[in-house]
Predict the structure.
Amino acid sequence: MGTRLYHCEWWPEPSGAHGSGADGTVVVLMHGFAEHCRRYDELAEHLLQRGIAVCRIDARGHGRSSGQRGYVASYDDHVGDLRAYVERVAALAPGRPLALLGHSNGGLTAIRALQHGLPAVSSLVLTNPYLQLRAARKPVPDALARWLSRVAGRLPLPNGLRPGDLTHDVRLQEAVRRDPWVHRVATPRWYWSALLAGRAALEEASKLALPLLLILGAADPVAEPSASRAFYERVAALDKQLVLRQGELHEVLNEVERHSLFALISDWLERRR
């Protein structure tokens, strides 16, 4: 039996407030590690009000999708799943601008999918992409991580992600603690494959020439910001923008001042229709 991936597609009213519901941008949103796509309902509702459709999946081993929690045999599994879903969405909305929005591990997945070739996508939004883990958060030296990936690839271990690492919003911190679709583990195989994928994403950054909006939380304790800045400098896009959110943590889309960021993203997307 194959992997079952949960997905949901939200389409705006054809005659919405911005008059672009029938032909406006479609966003494919890819969530981060250990979470799920429905944690972004608030963002999706904002985008719908702006006439922007939002289509989402839960990655394998995450949320309502099947698969061992926090495990992939290869990072190409994440990449292949996203590429197949983007192609499905493009077929549902032919001729409409299609943007990829990826957070953290979802950002890395989006980057690798585009580097493998995804012509349907016309723009890219990234929030704190997981290109490299902060040095202080590395669980083991790389040589040991590689060995564990080979001999104990499926071993579930605590992933070390704390609600306080994600957002300053106390209500959303508590929601993460109570969310049955948020898992608390990672496996050596996923960790090592993501590490290699991050290295490849940086090495092949110049392959990307589509419009890019990169948003970083300046106080992110999880993803290494210098790796994201290096990626930004290396991409070939002439149309690119870097937004630094002072004092914000890993999940800028769930931070206290998120509504101003929602508006920034929707404005940016609308200017690229």
Remarks:
- Strands lie at 7-10, 26-30, 53-57, 98-103, 123-127, 157-158, 185-186, 212-217, 240-245.
- Residues 7-270 form a domain with the Rossmann fold fold (CATH 3.40.50.1820).
- The two ends are 40 Å apart (CA to CA).
- The chain has a mean pLDDT of 96.
